Fold this sequence. Notes:
Elements: E1 2-4, E2 10-16, E3 21-26, E4 31-34, H1 39-47, H2 55-61
Organism: Rhizobium lentis
Protein name: KTSC domain-containing protein
Amino acid sequence: MQFPVHSKTIAELDYDSQTCLLRVLYKDGRVSSVPHVAPTLVMKIVARVPVEKSSYLMQTAI
C-alpha cells in the first residue's frame, strides 16, 4: 500500500503487508526501509496525516 505524505522531508510511505516492510521515500530521492513493522503501527502513522491529504484514508472514509 502506498501512502502519499505531505511533510517537509518525506514524500511517500510504501508498506508491504506480506513482508511487513515499510519503505520511506524522501523528497530528495533517498529511500530507507524498516523491517518488521506491524500494520497497526503503519495505520497510526498514516492517521496523523489529515484525511484530505491521504487518498487512502479518504477512500476508506467514503
